[in-house]
Automatic annotation (TrEMBL):
It comes from Ligilactobacillus equi DSM 15833 = JCM 10991. This is Uncharacterized protein.
Length: 88
């Protein structure tokens, strides 16, 4: 299909698919990160983690990562909404 122009309907469907895929992937990542957070919290409460400084350093980096993924997810959802609005 290279070199050929896409019909507006095809382009719209492709954009919808891409934005939905991006939203789904980011949501999956965020869900996995949240699951990991629960495991780490339980480990800390049960005394499995003994080096609190290392845990706190990791927790800070983890929180930064979650914020970044959450921000990317919000942007992807905005792009998805704009794509749907273009169709109307």
């Amino acid at each position: 299909m290279k070199g050929q122009k896409m019909k507006p309907e095809e382009l719209s469907q492709k954009l919808q698919y891409q934005t939905q895929k991006e939203v789904d992937e980011l949501q999956t990542i965020l869900n996995k990160l949240n699951g990991m957070s629960l495991v780490l919290s339980k480990a800390m409460k049960n005394g499995v983690v003994v080096d609190k400084k290392a845990y706190n350093d990791f927790a800070q980096k983890y929180n930064d990562l979650v914020k970044a993924v959450d921000f990317d997810l919000k942007r992807a959802k905005l792009r998805q909404a704009k794509t749907f609005d273009l169709e109307k």
